[in-house]
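Our preliminary data section would be incomplete without showing what the modeling component actually yields. Below, a chain of 489 amino acids is followed by its predicted structure, encoded as C-alpha cells that our downstream tools consume directly.
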Amino acid sequence: MSNGITAAEALSQAERLGAEGRVADAIRLYRAVLQQAPQLPDAWYNLGVLERRAGLYLEALASYARALEFNISGPEEVHLNRGVIFSDCLRDAAAAERELEAALALNPRYAPALLNLGNLHEDLGRREHAAQAYRRLLELDPRAFEALARLAGLSDVTDANDPMIARLRAALADPAADAAARASLGFALVRALDACGEYAAAFAAAREANRASREAGPGVRYDRATFERTVDELIRAFPAGEVPGSTADAPPHPVFICGLYRSGSTLAERLLAGPAGVAAGGELGFIAPLAESLFAPFPSGAALAPPALFAEAAARYRAELARFFPGAAWVTDKRPENFLYLGLIRRMFPHARVVHTTRNALDNCLSIYFLHLDQRAAYALDLADIGHYYRQYRRLMAHWRTLFGEDLLDFNYDRFVRDPGPTARRLFDFCGLAWDERYLEFSESGAAVKTASVWQVRRALYRHASGRARHYAHELAPLAAELADFAED
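Predicted structure:
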C-alpha cells in the first residue's frame, strides 16, 4: 500500500472499521486495497457485504461477482447473498430465482438457499413450488423448524385432527428447538388452530409463541412512558396549521399507505397497483433514514429545519423511487410505521395523498398478537401493551388529521369486505386515479407480495379476519374494556 502498510494490514483495518459501524470508511479502504490487488476473493465478498449495508446494491452485486470470478470458497453463499439483494432490495424476483438456483446447482443440500427459494415462491403466489422447496429441505433436515413452520402456513387446516397440527406440536416439544424456532412453530400452530375453530387452544398457543419470541429477542421491552413521550414530541414538532416546508411536486408521485400492522395496507396497495403507471413499492425503508440523518435528533430537529432541508429530503426520496421504479408515475409506500413520520411527510410532500388503513380495533389488536413480528416491535408481544400502543397511535393519528385535512383518507378493511366496489372507488377518487371494476380482481396478479398477508390478498375477498375477535371474547375482555371508546369505529 502507498501509505506504508501492507495489504494484509489494510484489510485487517477495514474489517475493524466495518465492525465498528464505520461502513463508508471500511468501503473506501477495501476499494483501495482491491484496486491494487484485485485477486482477493474474500475481500471482494466483505466489500459486497458492506456495500449492501450502505444501500449500494448494484455495487454489492458487482463485488460479489468479482468474488465469484476469483473462485471464492463456498460460492453458493455468494449466490444466496446476490439472490437476497435481487429479491429484497431490487425487487427483481426473476434474477433472485436464478441466483438461488445457481446456489443449489453448486450445493443441492444448501439449506439457506432452499429456504429462501421457498420464501420467494410464496411471495410470487406459487404455493406448490414453495411447498416443494420446504419439503425438500425437511427431507434433508427433519429439524429444519423454520421450513416446517412455513410449510404449515401453506396448509389448509380445517380439522383439529389434521396431521400438521400434531407435527407442529411434536416439533415444539423437540429439545433441539430453540426459542426462535419455538416462536416460528408456535405462530404457525396459532394459525392452524384458529383456522379449524380451536379458539381457546389458539389463544393459548399465541401466549406461548409470544413468550418464545420475547425469549429469542435482543431483550427489548416496550416502555409505555417512552412511547407516550415520543407521541408528545411528534405533536410538538409538527403543530397544526403550519405552512408546509417543501413545494416540490414532480413525478414519481408517492402515495403513502400506513396504519398498524394487519390493518389492510397490503389490500389497499394491491388495489391501487391496478392502473398502468402505478408501481406497488411495498414496505419501503426510505423515510426513517431521512428523518434520522437530515433531521437529527428527530423529531425536534425537524421543528427547526429550514424549508430547503425538507426540499432536499423530498428530492432524495424521489430519487430513490425513480431508481427502483423507473418510469412509474405513482409509487405506493406502504410501510406501516410511516404513521410516525406523517408530520415530516407533510413537510416534504405537501400535495401527497395519505391512505390510513383501519379495521375493527379488537380484530386489529388480536391479529397483531397472532403475528410473528420482529422482536423490536416489542409492544406486539403482550395484549395489554398492544392496547396501550393502539391508544397512542390513535392519539397521534387524530393530530395528523389536523395537518392533512382532506389529504388523508381512512380506508376501512371491514367496510371494504362488506361493500368492495364503492369503498374501492372512493380510494381511487381520493388518489386521483380512474376506477375500473376489474381492479377488484387483484387476487389474480402475479406480483410479489412480501408481507404476512401474502395468501389472504391472493383470495378473491378474504372475509375470515373481519369479526374474528368475537371468537375470543373471553380472552379479549380486558382489552375490550380498555378500547371501549373505539368499539364503533
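Residues 240 and 427 are 25 Å apart (CA to CA). The mean pLDDT is 93. Preliminary results of this kind motivate Aim 1 of the renewal.
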